[in-house]
Amino acid sequence: MDPDELFGRIRLLARSLGIIDIGATDVRSWESDPLVSGTIRKCSYPSALMSGSRSVISMGIPTQRAILATAPSLYYFEHYRTLNLMLDHAAQRIVMELNILGHEAVFVPRDGYTGIDGLRKDPSSFFSHRHSAYLAGMGTFGPSGMLITEGNGPRVRFTSVITDAELPYGKPLEKQLCIGCMRCRDECPEKAVASDTYPDELTDKIRCVEYSTLLRKRGCSPCGRCIFVCPVGKDADGPLPSDEATANIRSYTE
Questions:
Q1: Radius of gyration over alpha carbons of the chain, in Å?
Q2: pTM for the full model?
Q3: Dihedral sign (CA 143, 222, 235, 127)
Q4: Lowest CB count within 10 Å: 69, 75, 210, 225, which one?
Q5: Where exactly are the structural domains of the chain?
Q6: pLDDT tens figures, 38-64
């Protein structure tokens, strides 16, 4: 099947499964792009996770900013968990479709670590969906290392599928989407967000994880404040809950 035709078929299936953003990148770009090759360990390259792989499909579902406005809260916790389940389901379904069409493929779960406790031991994951999406031209990095998209700013959850199928590839955006306002840094309750541009300076992941640990005990992790206040994205001026409603929602925690 022609690469464009194949990707069109995958895109339609992904949309039916709730995926809003989708792109693809050549696995060789992980070695040729200096930002990625200088940041990601080779054992976490897609070619290391699946021999004979050619492409990585990146897929994203936006978080709903009206829910994110209440974070940290039970409301956002449930929303975050639901998006994760949707991403895993969509990625595995696309793997099955590629298998049916005669291609090898594996999906990578949206979180490549063992929960918050795993992050406390090693604040990294075995595969970076953000860097894959960056290589596919779906966004650029902000100062905290979060991927900022044109449509929803940093308010997108990603997953990835690695396959031996050849697909039409995107390339990193030339335009930097971060406007340098540093609202993410100012909003962070732990002051963990870096002051300089990623990857020149990295967010203090340990501080972030420790705060998430406290929120988990209250039943309302993750925090989400840095991605909520980012003004980039078409959703940045969307409707929000009232202050009274937000306060009431936040009261439903331990």
A1: 18
A2: 0.93
A3: positive
A4: 210
A5: 3-236
A6: 989 999 999 999 999 999 999 999 999
